[in-house]
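Below is a filled-in request sheet from our internal design queue. Each sheet records the structural input a requester submitted and the sequence that came back. We keep these sheets so that new team members can see what a complete request looks like end to end.

REQUESTER: design group, bay 2
PRIORITY: normal
MODE: inverse folding
CHAIN LENGTH: 266
BACKBONE (tokenized):
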């Protein structure tokens, strides 16, 4: 039996960011030497940069056990978790710190901290690695970064990565509710436009691809919202191809893709 539970991912995402003290996201990307996994503390973006934390510390080590793509193998995870906990304790002895993200890439684990002072930090870390990771090749770098460029320009996900995370979060909600994901069902896609002409041009283009408009009596009146509907599955491959297409088409007509929603199919 279908359970009509509707989700608005955009609103859910922002409510989660504000309801938790910390909100972390992980995503995959491609850098110069291959795939990379980045984790970043998302909630800091609302009030960064913070004046008291004007230095960025980048530190970590190379893996002992690696997978073929340069990302850490299962045997490295315990060391990585221990590194995070131990570094937090050591660094806080010298300065105030904010752990903002991490990078797994090209056989190396790097953690990113914003710190209030760099005095004594390099020496402390040299002793730390010598004592706890004597067989590792450590990486330690500290730079002035008042504008938090490393956070915003490197760690923080670009629009495409955020879109993928939104879709993944939505799918996880459906999975947790028992949805099988592969059964076609009506899916609503919400898009906003600045003018009715832009909306109509977009609608004409997408109708040719099997989408149709659904009138929303509760739609806002200060812009030109559109609800598109189409029957399709909601597994990641299907959703990614559809939302990528809709986001690109909306952008070409000066619109903004907002969210998608559906009901659970058991």
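RETURNED SEQUENCE:
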């Amino acid at each position: 039996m279908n359970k009509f539970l509707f989700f608005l991912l955009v609103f859910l995402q922002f409510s989660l960011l504000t309801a938790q003290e910390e909100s972390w996201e992980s995503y995959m990307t491609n850098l110069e030497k291959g795939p990379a996994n980045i984790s970043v503390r998302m909630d800091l973006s609302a009030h960064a940069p913070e004046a008291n934390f004007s230095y960025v510390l980048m530190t970590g080590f190379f893996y002992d056990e690696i997978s073929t793509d340069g990302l850490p193998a299962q045997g490295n995870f315990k060391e990585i978790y221990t590194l995070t906990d131990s570094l937090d304790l050591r660094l806080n002895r010298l300065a105030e710190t904010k752990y903002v993200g991490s990078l797994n890439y090209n056989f190396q684990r790097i953690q990113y901290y914003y710190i209030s002072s760099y005095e004594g930090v390099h020496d402390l870390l040299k002793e730390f690695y010598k004592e706890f990771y004597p067989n590792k090749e450590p990486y330690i770098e500290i730079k002035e970064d008042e504008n938090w460029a490393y956070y915003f320009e490197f760690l923080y996900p670009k629009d495409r990565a955020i879109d993928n995370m939104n879709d993944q979060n939505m799918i996880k909600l459906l999975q947790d509710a028992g949805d099988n994901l592969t059964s076609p069902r009506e899916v609503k896609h919400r898009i906003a436009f600045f003018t009715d002409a832009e909306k109509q041009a977009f609608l004409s283009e997408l109708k040719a691809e099997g989408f149709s408009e659904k009138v929303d009596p509760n739609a806002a009146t200060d812009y030109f919202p559109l609800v598109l509907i189409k029957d399709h599955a909601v597994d990641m491959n299907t959703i990614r191809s559809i939302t990528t297409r809709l986001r690109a088409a909306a952008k070409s007509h000066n619109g903004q893709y907002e969210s998608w929603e559906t009901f659970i199919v058991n």
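SHEET NOTES:
- DSSP finds seven helices and ten strands in the chain.
- The first strand starts at residue 24 and ends at 31.
FILED BY: M.R.
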